[in-house]
Amino acid sequence: MTIKEIESLSGMTRANIRFYESEGLLLPARSPNGYRDYSENDLEILKRIKLLRTLHISLEEIKLLQNGDRELMDALDQHLAELESKQISLEQSKEICEEMRSDGVQYQTLDAQHYLDAIENMTDKPVPELEADTVPKVRSPWRRFFARQLDLFIYSLLWMIFLSMAMNTNIANRNGGKDILDTFIGLLLMLFIEPAMLRFFGTTVGKWILGLRITDGEGRHLSYSKAFSRTWTMFLRGMGLNIPIYNLVRFWRSYRACEEGETLDWEEESILILRDKKGWRIGAYVGAYVAAFAVLILTLFIAAMPKHRGEISVSEFCDNYNRLSEYMDVGSGSSLNESGEWVKPEYDEYDDPNTATVYIDIGGNGDEPNFLFTEDNGAMTGMDFSKELHDSDEFVPSYQNEMILAILSFARAQKGCSPFSKDIDHIIKQIAESPFEDFQYSVQGVSITCEVEYSGYTNIESMSTLWPEEGVESDYSFHFMMAKK
User: Fold this and answer.
1) pLDDT by residue (tens digit) across 395-446?
2) N or C: which terminus of the chain has fewer CB atoms within 10 Å of its end residue's CB?
3) Rounded distance between C-alpha atoms, residue 105 and residue 99, angstroms
């Protein structure tokens, strides 16, 4: 029999049955899938327990009776004496006990249903003894909700860290469909990580901080399969698969059911236990959220750092440049090879030109600047690039992306530059705001210089471009240089 079937046949609640199992009065068999399989004998034991508890006989007495350490006749005699001595006004218990006494019943052959029917005919009031025989039901819906939210944030944080560190993805720029994908991945991680945590620790980070833990009916950790089933059912019935609107409906229904003390769908094979409600847990919860946000911010700073640092070679500079160009989503689509030469992206001859990605370079003639490097024993010591035009009808780009990426790839790669260093940020801000102005800085042991001169051009600030003035002789000279001191 399943738990639902034995609930119906015994007239007991699931909480009663689980409590008696935890007390060792009931030991149901297990089916191959791990679920409890109750027998007719289990049903009879429950009916006997129900009868004797209805008669206010203690659990300790029932345990002695079931173990054969005490005779039912002796137990009835003692119980009758206690009822009379305490002058308990429970006439139904007294009458049934006297009837059982006169019938000369024995525990092993006790027909509990006969006497249960007699009690039911006497009164329709609930039986207080059975109501007390339950594992305390944890309600606290808000505590459970906030524990879940912290766990979900942590699962999403793990995905964000993977994207940043392993996939070179700027998570600060993810939006639209990518946000939906990130949410989906976070929920997918929940489905697999949470069961593992319940299997080995009996709790999750959010639950542990707020004093919650989960066990099976015997107080042990759930198996992975049962923990997975619990998490999946919660995701389906509690979160509504996170489908907009529907998830709010499921949240509300679950909240109401929890408030009313009902057994939630995902808790049929598990028990939620609340250790305590100490005030320090609220502070710890807020602290955990702050720490998680700090890790997220730290991830953003670290991911924006160049991969190769210290005494880097030209090839390592080029790798830094390419990775940061991809991370910041800037550039014309070309990349630097190990020698520092520009390489155009290669497209398959069968690519559909209508769907292939098109890179647009606003650099006038479409050529990227030629990077020149200096080295000392294989270590890069500097680089520069320049551009000169005279009486040309070409429009001129600012080269601000090239300058910013070069600074980040070299100056920020220097030993001693941390993710939180602000000196380079000041340079980048000036380049972004005034790309056609001279500047000279010295940061992290690197001298950075930019010299720009032009005439006969109009500065189109919105496009960071110089446009030649018609009918006017134009001159343009640009030189950017970085060098170790």
Assistant:
1) 999 999 999 999 999 999 999 898 888 889 999 999 999 999 999 999 999 9
2) C
3) 9
